[in-house]
């Protein structure tokens, strides 16, 4: 979780009266809401509303966001080429590509603004902003984002993603985690602070900077997702009516270019690039970095078999030195049980290189991943044979 943060007005102690100005509301109090994780055992935030957050006027079914998997007759590598159709808004425009019980990877290229508030009731979300900039609006306050930001949104956060109009249309990778998104414990000291030598630290994490109170007593619908099911809750007021909050559960951003790569005299294994983890998977950030300095170093990854995991790479920027034929926006899936490694010619081509400019996001899962029809429609069937000279 990110560091402790507080914004707005708070009472001096938890669970005590936070009084309003005389005559402001009938009860003369702001209304406390406690947002907890893993029951009441882990990180939490406490939020104070103008009105009770339970004022639901109507509940109705709103369909599904089902993820269909395509049966795979063979175990093989996949290259999902870029070019998925753009459309929808930042919620309805999501196209699922890979899925299992722990994580679903969606690509979103929205062409419409989000007009309805959204809440994921059962999953944390990581939005990697490939293209676009704008503001994430939540009851914690507005949070700006820019290209190459990881935007981490805790489950049950009601939000609206607003993109600015830019020459390059928005393009987002959405990582939907059934468990809680956390930092690797090895980066933290026993006091909970990032260790000196970790590839990023507290200053690289950015939460909301100010409260923006919405005092509106009109009906507001919220689209709520839990698993594949969608429900529409109509609140009797706007849920962004927060006057203050504190805690360690809130949306935040971390920019991929703020990652400080760990390098060595010879090639280092992928875990040095890790940024996040959750139940059943990890997220790694391959950032621009100096290459290995040993005179005989092989400067591209060694061939390896993923014995206990499946590896998805999303190619963001630059030239990926170990791979031919991929381009910005490509995905590769290298599954368990069969080896993969540098393409022919890339070892020799890297010999004189001293630095790589690549930026890529890797998701390694510990359960097999299934591909969706949208992924298979962009799949290069010849990719498994691309290691032939």
From the alpha-carbon coordinates, what is the Rg to the nearest angstrom? 22 Å
Main β-sheet, spatial strand arrangement: 15-19-12-9-14-7-6-29
Task: Give the biggest beta sheet.
Answer: 8 strands, antiparallel
Given as residue ranges, the uncertain stretches (5+ residues, pLDDT < 50) are none
What is the beta-strand fraction? 35-45%
Number of helices: 2
Shape: globular
Mean pLDDT: 92
Query: Briefly, what CATH class of the domain at 58-69 and 85-210 and 250-256?
Result: Mainly Beta
Q: In terms of structural class, how would the helical and strand content be classed?
A: mainly beta
Give a nutshell description of this structure:
The protein is mostly beta strands and 389 residues long. Helices cover 2% and strands 37% of the residues. The model has no long low-confidence stretch (mean pLDDT 92).
Description:
The protein is globular, with a radius of gyration of 22 Å. The chain contains two helices and 29 strands. With 389 residues, it is mostly beta strands. Among the domains are: 58-69 and 85-210 and 250-256, Sandwich (Jelly Rolls), CATH 2.60.120; 259-385, Jelly Rolls (Sandwich). It has an eight-stranded antiparallel beta sheet. A seven-stranded mixed beta sheet has the order 4-17-16-8-13-10-11, with no helix packed on it. The termini are far apart. Strand 6 and strand 7 form a beta hairpin. The model has no long low-confidence stretch (mean pLDDT 92).
């Amino acid at each position: 979780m990110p560091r402790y943060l507080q914004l707005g007005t708070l009472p001096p102690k938890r669970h005590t009266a936070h009084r309003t100005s005389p005559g402001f509301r009938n009860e003369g109090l702001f209304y406390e809401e406690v947002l907890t994780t893993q029951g009441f055992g882990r990180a939490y935030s406490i939020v104070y509303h103008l009105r009770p957050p339970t004022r639901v006027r109507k509940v109705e079914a709103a369909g599904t966001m089902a993820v269909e998997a395509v049966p795979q007759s063979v175990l093989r590598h996949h290259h999902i080429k870029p070019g998925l159709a753009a459309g929808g808004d930042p919620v309805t425009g999501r196209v699922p590509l890979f899925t299992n019980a722990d994580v679903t990877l969606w690509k979103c290229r929205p062409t419409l603004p989000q007009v309805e508030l959204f809440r994921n009731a059962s999953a944390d979300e990581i939005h990697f902003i490939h293209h676009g900039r704008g503001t994430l609006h939540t009851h914690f306050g507005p949070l700006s984002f820019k290209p190459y930001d990881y935007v981490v949104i805790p489950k049950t956060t009601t939000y609206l993603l607003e993109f600015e109009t830019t020459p390059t249309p928005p393009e987002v990778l959405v990582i939907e985690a059934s468990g809680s998104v956390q930092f690797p414990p090895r980066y933290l000291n026993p006091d909970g602070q990032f260790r000196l030598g970790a590839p990023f630290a507290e200053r690289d994490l950015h939460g909301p900077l100010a409260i923006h109170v919405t005092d509106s007593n009109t009906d507001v619908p919220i689209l709520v997702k839990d698993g594949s099911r969608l429900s529409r809750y109509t609140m009797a007021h706007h849920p962004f009516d927060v006057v203050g909050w504190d805690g360690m559960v809130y949306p935040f951003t971390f920019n991929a270019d703020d990652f400080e790569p760990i390098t060595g005299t010879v090639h280092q294994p992928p875990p040095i690039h890790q940024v996040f983890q959750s139940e059943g998977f990890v997220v790694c950030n391959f950032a621009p970095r100096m290459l290995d300095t040993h005179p005989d170093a092989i400067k591209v990854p060694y061939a390896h078999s993923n014995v206990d995991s499946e590896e998805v790479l999303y190619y963001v920027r630059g030239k990926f030195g170990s791979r031919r034929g991929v381009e910005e926006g490509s995905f590769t899936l290298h599954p368990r049980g069969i080896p993969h490694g540098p393409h022919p010619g890339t070892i020799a081509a890297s010999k004189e290189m001293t630095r790589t400019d690549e930026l890529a996001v890797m998701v390694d899962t510990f359960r097999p991943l299934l591909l969706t029809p949208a992924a298979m429609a962009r799949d290069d069937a010849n990719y498994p044979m691309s290691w032939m000279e």
